[in-house]
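Supplementary notes (optional reading)

For those who missed the lab, this is the record we used. Protein: 4Fe-4S ferredoxin-type domain-containing protein. Length: 83 residues.
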Amino acid sequence: MALIITDECINCDVCEPECPNGAISQGDATYVIDPALCTECVGHYETSQCVEVCPVDCIIKDPNHQESEEELRAKFERITAGS
C-alpha cells in the first residue's frame, strides 16, 4: 500500500529528502507522495523513512492504493532496475 500525506502536514521539509525513490514532492498546499513511486521503503529499509521522521504523524497508508508486500517489492525492483 502506498502512503499518503494528510492535510495535517506542516511543510517542515524533512520527509522529502528521506525518500529513497523520490516519491515525495511539494504539492500545492502540502507535500504529496506519488503512489507509482512509493514502496513504503520496501527494498531499501525495514520501515518507511518518511513516517519515521515526520514530526506530526501525518503520513498514513493510502486506502486508494492497496498493495501487498510482494507488490511493493516488485515495484521496488522495477524502479531500481536501471540503477
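If you only remember one thing from this example: The longest strand covers residues 3-5.
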